[in-house]
Amino acid sequence: MLHTRHRRDSLTWQVAIITPVIHYCMGGLEIDTDSACVDASGKAIPGLYAAGEVAGGVHGNNRLGGNSLLDCVVFGRVAGKAAAKYMLGDKTKSMDLKELSGGGLAADKEAPASKL
Predict the structure, then answer these.
(1) Minimal CA–CA distance to 48: which of 68, 27, 26, 28?
(2) Does this UniProt record's set of keywords contain Oxidoreductase (predicted)?
(3) SS3 category, 21
(4) Residue of 25, 35, 53, 82 with fewest CB within 10 Å of its CB?
């Protein structure tokens, strides 16, 4: 498709070639609530986990704009936790994100006293 734009008050033409692209995949592997991939009968496949665009069916037939990053973060954490439990069993432990990040967000810390 060729798109053109012409301004009536000038002789400027802007031309761009527009082609179809995929910005988000709405298909993929079916997962359960632990992000484990399931087979055709709906049974979890041991040790196989998926998250993000590779996992289909999380949003149904369509997704709300802006939800893909949230989808990747939430199901990425779920898949990571389930995969760790699968590999390590009872040796896994919970980790506080504040501790992991080195103290939390900058807004959580006291602001330094002003030098003015």
Answers:
(1) 28
(2) yes
(3) coil
(4) 25
The secondary structure element, H or E, covering residue 38 is strand 36-38
Cα gap 111→113, rounded to integer Å: 6
DSSP 3-state assignment of 69?
Answer: helix
Residues with Cβ within 8 Å of residue 81, at least 6 apart in sequence: 92
The pTM of this model reads: 0.62
Angstrom distance (rounded) from CA 44 to CA 34:
9
Q: What is the DSSP letter of 112?
A: P
Element of type H or E holding 13: strand 13-17
Between CA 60 and CA 58 the distance in angstroms is 6
Give the pLDDT confidence of 69-93 residue by residue, as tens digits.
Answer: 778 888 899 999 999 999 999 999 8
